[in-house]
Every structure is written in C-alpha cells, then in structure tokens.
Amino acid sequence: MNRLAYNQDHDELELNGKPVGIEQPLELCIMGYWLPGVVHRDDSGWYLLTRDQVGIRLGAGLRARVLDIALVVTLPAHRIS
Q1: Which residues 6+ apart lie within 8 Å of 66 measured at CB?
Q2: Which region, left, alpha or beta, applies to residue 23 given φ > 0 means left and ψ of -120 to 50 means alpha?
Q3: How many angstroms from the chain centroid is the CA of residue 71?
Q4: Which of 3, 32, 37, 75 could be a cystine partner for 48, CB 3.0 to 4.6 Å?
Q5: pLDDT of residue 33
Q6: Which helix (H) or strand (E) holds 70?
Q7: What is the Cα–Cα distance from 69 to 39, expressed in whole angstroms?
Q8: pLDDT score recorded for residue 67
Q9: What is the rounded CA–CA span in Å between residue 48 and residue 69?
C-alpha cells in the first residue's frame, strides 16, 4: 500500500521512497475515495489542492498515489474497489 512518509533529514514528504514535489499531481484516499489534486506547501506544511480549490493537509501515513496531470484535470473522485 502506498503511504506518504516524512523524511526528516531532507524535510520532505516521500511516496515509495521518492520525494513528493511541489505542483506534483497526486491522489489521496479519503474515506474510500481517490481525490485528485496538486501538491503545494506553505508555512504550515504540505497540502493537496483539489480542482475545487479545497486544501487537504498532507502528512505521513496517508494513502496516496501519483497521478498523470491530464487525469487530475479530467477525472472526478471515484470510489476504490
């Protein structure tokens, strides 16, 4: 299962051992649904900004997966099976 991890040495979030970059497309599993968005960072930390401009705070342990940018724009949230 893909979960976000915090790398304290580099002060960055990682997914599958790779850094999660700012403006990277990502999907979070929230309450059984995959929600697409783009990663951002502010003074409080990382967050996923959805296409509806909703910010969801990111942290270690959250289930996530990398998504192609074209799909972020076109796909609605969908239930995982």
Answers
A1: 15, 24, 25, 26, 27
A2: left
A3: 14
A4: 37
A5: 92
A6: helix 69-74
A7: 11
A8: 78
A9: 13
C-alpha pair distances (Å), 56 with each of 10, 29, 50: 22, 11, 8
Amino acid identity at 45:
G
Tokens 């972020």 belong to 72
> Alpha carbon 51 to chain centroid distance?
13
Side chain identity at 2, as an amino acid letter? Answer: N
Other CB atoms closer than 10 Å to residue 17's CB: what's the count? 7
DSSP letter assigned to residue 54: -
Q: What is the pLDDT of residues 14-25, one digit of tens each?
A: 999 999 999 999
Q: pLDDT by residue (tens digit) across 28-53?
A: 999 999 999 999 999 999 999 998 99
Task: Tell me: pLDDT of 81 over 70.
Answer: no
Tell me if residue 48 falls in helix, strand or coil: strand
